[in-house]
Design a protein that fits this description.
Layout: H1 2-20, E1 41-44, E2 49-51, H2 52-55, E3 60-65, H3 73-86, E4 93-98, H4 106-116, E5 123-127, H5 130-138, E6 153-157, E7 163-168, H6 172-182, H7 188-196, H8 234-262, H9 266-298, H10 312-341, H11 345-374
Helix pairs in contact: 1-8, 1-9, 8-9, 8-11, 10-11
């Protein structure tokens, strides 16, 4: 039995590395051909086929995203929605292209577009062959070992299909510039020159172009322009799934351990509970790694709940006890295992009756919270 549990742990560690280690390379930012985008043919979520030719003749904005994004995609979507509202009276197309076409089917994207309030005539959501999409983003010869995740930049493409601007969706100054560019109040070349400057001179206000009368188009005075943050690597985006897997495995070990001790199989019970503890310890490491990395790449260390409003209260009813009990579960598990190591069985049994339900609750709700945060349909950003 001990050998069996050791084999299980080895398999789980191997699975963990299979999920994470191949993706440790930093994701690429899209590299655009200065001569124009290559030909492509993708499927719009509402049924039409869209090619490069369909987008020529008027400017358009391109963003790369995916519906299960654990990073800054909601921010990009929110900025695209603002631009949709601000440009209703001018010929401008908005295009969101998924980088996860295997999951983002037309039906999934249509639901996502409807949640965002996308105008079906102006804001298109495209999916299709993964190779076609990645070729569009990286060009024909991407660097081996690198995967495209997504960029938080919104690309401005002109009538000839040439990218003339890149704007960081997290940078309010650059978003204000993009709005002025598409409204014809700022030249794209001037906007890019300002974007490339690391800091706006504090002695010289960055204001609207001459003749602009809309104060909402003005950029904040004396604001530092932050450098573009790096895209979130895929190994970071995979960690929530890894964490859920580890929580699920810890739950399985706990239940098996309980069944074994009820049958009097003490040695096998000990192996199961030690496996549960090791799994939970690995989970703690990957959990902290995820939140530290997320803060490093996006500026925010947490992923907020964005699911249906009707489930918000149940979500917090699960989350708050989970957070409150997690440190107690860790401490109690250590003390309970210590008493077993000392063969102080009366004390061990007494502690186990308290530790087991708390530990089990934390492990089970860890999986539930993951499903609610990352797999429920997202609400439209405000």
């Amino acid at each position: 039995m001990i050998t069996g549990w050791r084999s299980l742990l080895i398999c789980c560690v191997a699975l963990l590395f299979a999920l994470v280690s191949p993706r440790f390379a930093t994701a690429q930012t899209p590299r655009w051909d200065p001569n124009g985008l290559p030909d492509f043919e993708l499927e719009e979520c509402r049924g039409r086929t869209v090619s490069k030719a369909d987008l020529l003749g008027q400017p358009w904005l391109a963003a790369f995203t995916f519906t299960r994004c654990a990073g800054p995609c909601p921010i990009v979507n929110a900025e695209m929605k603002k631009l949709q509202e601000a440009t209703r009276d001018i010929p401008l197309r908005l295009v969101s292209i998924t980088v996860d076409p295997a999951r983002d089917t037309p039906d999934v994207l249509k639901f996502h577009a409807d949640q965002l309030g996308a105008d079906p005539e102006r804001w298109w959501f495209l999916t299709g062959d993964k190779t076609e999409i990645f070729k569009l983003i990286t060009g024909p010869n991407p660097k081996p070992g690198f995967e495209v995740i997504h960029s938080i930049e919104i690309m401005h493409v002109n009538e000839q299909g040439v990218v003339v601007g890149r704007y960081n969706a997290r940078n309010d100054v650059q978003m204000a510039r993009l709005k002025r560019v598409v409204l014809g109040k700022l030249a794209p070349e001037e906007a890019q020159r300002l974007n490339d400057a690391p800091v706006a001179p504090k002695s010289e206000p960055v204001g609207p172009t001459s003749g602009s009368e809309d104060p909402s188009d003005s950029e904040p005075v004396g604001v530092e322009i932050q450098p573009l943050p790096r895209p979130v690597p895929e190994w970071v985006l995979r960690l929530p799934s890894v964490n859920a897997l580890l929580n699920g495995l810890a739950t399985l070990c706990l239940i098996v351990g309980y069944v074994l001790i009820r049958k009097g199989a003490r040695s096998a019970h000990a192996s199961a509970m030690i496996s549960a503890f090791i799994t939970s310890a690995v989970f703690l490491g990957t959990y902290l790694t995820y939140h530290i990395a997320l803060r490093h790449y996006t500026g925010s260390g947490s992923q907020p709940y964005q699911g249906p409003e009707s489930l918000r209260i149940p979500y917090y009813c699960i989350l708050i006890p989970h957070i409150a009990l997690a440190p107690f579960a860790t401490g109690l598990a250590l003390v309970t295992l210590k008493e077993a190591w000392k063969k102080n069985w009366p004390e061990h049994r007494w502690l186990a009756r308290i530790t087991f339900p708390i530990w089990l609750y934390v492990s089970v709700t860890g999986v539930i919270i993951y499903l609610m945060v990352y797999h429920l349909p997202r609400q439209s950003p405000a």
